[in-house]
Amino acid sequence: xxxxxxxxxxxxxxxxxxxxxxxxxxxxxxxxxxxxxxxxxxxxxxxxxxxxxxxxxxxxxxxxxxxxxxxxxxxxxxxxxxxxxxxxxxxxxxxxxxxxxxxxxxxxxxxxxxxxxxxxxxxxxxxxxxxxxxxxxxx
Length: 139
Prior knowledge:
This protein has helices at 2-12, 37-45, 60-63, 74-83, 112-137; strands at 69-71, 91-93. It is mainly α. The chain has a two-stranded parallel ribbon with strand order 1-2.
């Protein structure tokens, strides 16, 4: 959902999508799995599109294409820093983009309401933290 909401934010604000490389990946994800119906529905209600989403696992090859890696949970940041030390300086919790330090837990398996609550948190951080996201992504 974070990827879809971020892309929607860029479009809504007239940002050139060609300047951005936005992707989602999971530390322990099985590849090629579609988004859950709750995630698709929640993203759509907020203007995002997950209909063609396909899961990817974090890999060295994937990370080399990014200069900013935002994680939802601290165990994700630790995993990436430990297993891909060349990317360690580029890894942050998403909440750090608004000057805080909290985790956003994956709602997978939860209720539609849990997905909605998660998407609202994500959206708030994207809007409030965009300046920092932009600054760190262009370093």
